[in-house]
Amino acid sequence: MSFIDHKQYPFPYLILVLAALKTFIIASTTLKQLANFIATYHSVKQMLWIFGLLISLSIFSFATDYTCLYLFDGQHFEGIISSSRTYIANLYHFTYFSLTTFSTLGFGDIAPISSFSRFLVMLEIFLSFFIVVFAFTNIQKIHLDEKGQNN
User: Fold this and answer.
1) What local confidence, expressed as pLDDT, does residue 147 receive?
2) 112 within some domain
3) What single string gives the DSSP state of each residue in 71-107?
4) CA-to-CA distance for 103 and 45, rounded, in angstroms?
5) Number of structural domains, the chain?
6) What is the per-residue pLDDT for 118?
7) pTM
C-alpha cells in the first residue's frame, strides 16, 4: 500500500536534490568536525573508526537512494536480477553496487543508464574521493603528531 503515487510527483528530482544536499552536509560536516577532532588530538585508531563509520554511512545512504530510484522506475539501472522484487533484495544489490562505486572498483555488472542514476553515481564518486583524500591526509598528520610526541 502506497500513500504517494510516485509517478505523479517529480520523485527522481526529489531523490537527486536530497542526495546532493546530503552530500554537501556530509562533506561540510566532515571538514568542520575533523578540524575540532584534530585540535583536541585523538589517536589514529579513533580516527580510523570515525572514517570507517562515515564510509559505511555513505555507502548505505547511497544504496538506499539507488534502491528508491530503482523502485520508482526499473529503467534507471541495468543488471539487476528481475526476480528480486523485495525491497531488501534490491537494497542488497544496490549496497553491493554502492560499495563497488565507492571503492572505484566498478565491476560493471550493474550500470546506471539514466541521467538521474548517473548523477547519483557522480555524487557518490565525489563524496568517496573527498572522504578518502581527506582521511589519508589527516590520518597521516595525526600519525606524524603521535610519532613526534613519542620521541
Assistant:
1) 63
2) yes
3) HH-GGGEES--TT--SHHHHHHHHHHHHHHHHTT---
4) 21
5) 1
6) 93
7) 0.79
Q: Do the domain assignments include residue 57?
A: yes
Residue 116 lies in a domain: yes
Domain of residue 100 covers: 45-146
Q: For residue 78, what is its C-alpha cell?
A: 541495468
Question: Does residue 131 lie within any of the structural domains?
Answer: yes
Q: Return averaged pLDDT per consecutive 10 residues of the chain, 151 residues in all.
A: 58 87 88 73 75 91 93 86 78 94 87 92 92 76 63 59
Region at 81 (left for phi over 0; alpha for psi -120 to 50; beta for the rest): beta
The C-alpha R_g of the chain, in whole angstroms, comes to: 18
CATH number for the domain spanning 75: value is 1.10.287.70
Residue 1: per-residue pLDDT: 43
Question: What is the bridge-based pairing of β-strands 77-78 and 111-112?
Answer: antiparallel
Residue 79 CB partners (closer than 8 Å, separation 6+): 109, 110, 111
C-beta separation of 146 from 43 below 8 A = yes
Question: Which phi and psi (to 5°) does residue 77 adopt?
Answer: -135, 150
Task: Tell me what pLDDT residue 12 has.
Answer: 84
Torsion of CA 131, 135, 137, 142, to 10 degrees: 160
